[in-house]
Amino acid sequence: MESPYAIENAISHEVDIISMSWTIRRSVAELRSQSSGIGIATSPKKSIDDSGVTRLEKAIARAAENKNILMVCSAADDIELLAKDTLRYSAARVQIFRIGACNSQAQREPSEDNQTISYFLPGIHVPEARRPHSSTPPVYHDGSSIATALAAGLMSMILHCVRYMAQCQETRPFTPDNGLKNSNYYTRLAEKLKDHASMRVALTNIVRSQGSQQPDDPKQLPVYRLFREKAEKMQNANGLNKIVILEDLVTDLCSGISKD
């Protein structure tokens, strides 16, 4: 089984994010002893033996102990499975972002145990990337695995924006009176964002970008709304004005995150 090795290797290479788009259920015998007649034996999800479960749980727990690695996993598409019975999430519930799928209208895909899902992102009828003006018909994909990849990409982009600001500030004049933040400020902020709680604050700020402190659905991430506005402004800006707009975006995303 390669999953524990992949996680252990990611830890040793000090990655920023571990994205796990697979779902593995515990052994059928164990699940039967914990459940009361649920038809788990017919589940299409993969089952592994006890030694494989133990090694995988230890690998995930080790990653969870590392405060500088964000973990993202997909919810099970099988509605008969509960989060506590699926590996990744059950091994480190507090330190993993669990992602479910929704369509372009923000309608959620039926999945197991919605209460344990952190956020919903597009994962229904999502087209593959292709060249502009291509005559090849688009290929579409479905499932929480697609949404999980988008979630990991979103977190990576947030980290990149903050780190890019740190690089930009190294070349900009800084004095205590000119209102600019020095590069150390953004370097510390980027490190802080690798903590689960801080990244959750950034994602919550995206939710609140709809204009309400109490949104109708706090698990929906209106990414397009926030980033489109900033992207359009950057396209029409010149020179350092682009950096100012990016700085505004980073400020919006990281509002409420302590840099201490």
From TrEMBL:
Any one GO MF annotation of this record: serine-type endopeptidase activity
UniProt keyword list: Signal, Zymogen
Domain Peptidase S8/S53: 6-160
Keyword Signal found: yes
Name of the protein in its database record: Peptidase S8/S53 domain-containing protein
Domain of life: Eukaryota
Pfam families: Peptidase_S8 (PF00082)
Gene Ontology process terms (BP): proteolysis
